[in-house]
Specification:
11 helices; Butyryl-Coa Dehydrogenase, subunit A, domain 1; four-stranded antiparallel beta sheet; 8 strands; binds flavin-adenine dinucleotide; Butyryl-CoA Dehydrogenase, subunit A, domain 2; about 15% strand; Butyryl-CoA Dehydrogenase, subunit A, domain 3
């Protein structure tokens, strides 16, 4: 990885990134970052073209090592690449895939050379979709209570059990699966992490229908499903450690305060439209104005803290426990913004569909509802508070493990 000490080198990289993006990012996709959402696996031709181009360049996974197809960029260069993308309304089409945000980084941390060579290049090129099989009907926050079993059958594992809330399982090729491999051991000590091929008869996915009509996640059933012995990521019965690392990577990817990848709306502009202005051009509603200012200050503080954490991390890719703080503050900013948006829209902020509401109003309602998930997925808000109190502040343990 190149060591970019000075601004000159970084500016040279900026020029390189700019010209590559200009040559490769399809203009028709400008500002359509929502297409990258994991919920929308669109096959729009320009998006397919863009996925291929960025995958081959390795810039969808900019800091991953070049030997696995990644961009090999420093954190500073990756930030410049992100800035250059934003400048022209481009986006990383791979950024929400669980292969990129969670599984790949965990394989980089714990994988054997063979596992890295098998899985990482396909994630880099966006050729495979991954899901994460952690939660079970009786194991959510208390994840270590999980009961899905993997039994050693000589040269392979036989897996039986049920997962739930498995995002995108119905579309996935592979699953990062937490299983119990030693039922006699203490609950945190008999767990292993397997890389499981989803395309086999022993795995059934049943999409869970939401009130909106969408089915973003599944109940996932394993009935004598199989995985080769080499599917074990990390050591046998030490899967809790591997699993926690994946969660840190997941939470690190959830620290931006946007809803499902959608860029936050410019609240001040919307507020002026709905509430009007006084003779000095300020928002007419004094109470709303002060709450909006407080929110903007919170959002700015979050963004600056995020930037500081990134700068302090430098080349260190291990996220640690800081994402638990940042995930909660990102959630606070995004959910407050959604509440304020609906409030200022008044009765226009109650629409789900129909001609009486414009697309921004409908989007605002859907974002507000979707945003409720932010304080649940990746470990609930309360669980993040527990992690902060225990692992960062060193306060006494809680009744359940986080
Ligand atoms: C949109 C979405 C996508 C998801 N995708 C996935 C996925 O891909 N794979 C996957 O495995 N899971 C996924 N999940 C599941 C998610 O990880 C769990 O919902 C989450 O961990 C909470 O578990 P639970 O739903 O069982 O709630 P519970 O654990 O039953 O918690 C219920 C309430 O009790 C509180 N609580 C529980 N224990 C404590 C405690 N010790 N201290 C304080 N409060 C506590 C919680 O904060 C929560 O408010 C997804 C969830 C959502 C909403």
């Amino acid at each position: 990885m190149a060591d970019f000490g000075g601004d000159t080198e970084l500016e040279a990289f900026r020029a390189e990134a700019r010209s590559w993006l200009e040559a490769n990012f399809p203009a028709s996709l400008k500002g359509k970052g929502a297409l990258a959402s994991a919920e929308v696996r669109s096959n729009e031709p320009d998006l397919v073209k863009w996925r291929k181009a960025i995958g081959e360049k390795g810039w969808g996974t900019p800091t991953w090592p070049t030997q696995y197809g990644g961009g090999g960029l420093s954190v500073a260069q990756a930030r410049v690449l992100g800035q250059e993308m934003s400048r022209i309304g481009a986006f990383n089409p791979l950024m929400f895939g669980m292969g990129v945000t969670m599984i790949g980084p965990t394989i980089l941390d714990y994988g054997t050379e063979a596992q890295k060579a098998e899985h990482l290049p396909r994630i880099v090129r966006g050729e495979v979709q991954w899901c994460v099989g952690y939660s079970e009907p009786n194991a959510g926050s208390d994840l270590a209570s999980l009961q899905t079993r993997a039994v050693d059958a000589g040269d392979h594992w036989v897996i039986n059990g049920q997962k739930t809330w498995t995002s995108g399982a119905q579309y996935s090729d592979w699953c990062g699966l937490l299983v119990r491999t030693d039922p006699q051991a203490k609950k945190h000590e008999g767990i292993s992490f397997l890389l499981v091929n989803m395309k086999q008869p022993g795995i059934e996915t049943r999409p869970i229908g939401l009130i909106s009509g969408a089915s973003p996640f599944c109940e996932t059933f394993f009935t004598d499903a199989v995985a080769p012995k080499e599917a074990l990521l990390g050591q046998l019965n030490v899967g809790w450690t591997v699993g926690k690392r994946l969660l840190q990577h997941e939470r690190a990817s959830q620290t931006g305060a946007s809803m499902g990848g959608r860029p936050p709306a410019a609240l001040n502009t919307i507020a002026k439209k709905y509430l009007g202005t006084d003779d000095k051009g300020r928002l007419a509603d004094v109470d709303f104005r002060s709450r909006l200012v407080k929110h903007e200050m919170d959002a700015k503080a979050h963004a600056l803290t995020l930037a500081r954490a990134a700068a302090e991390a430098k080349g260190n890719n291990s996220p640690g426990n800081a994402p638990s703080v940042l995930k909660n503050s990102a959630t606070w900013v995004a959910q407050t913004r959604a509440e304020l948006t609906l409030e200022l829209m008044g009765s226009q902020g109650l629409g789900w569909e129909g001609d009486a509401f414009n697309e921004h109003e409908i989007e605002a309602v859907r974002s507000w509802l979707w945003g409720k998930a932010m304080s649940i997925y990746g470990g609930s808000q309360e669980v993040q508070f527990n992690i902060v109190s225990k692992r960062i502040l060193g306060l006494p343990d809680t009744t359940q493990s986080a």
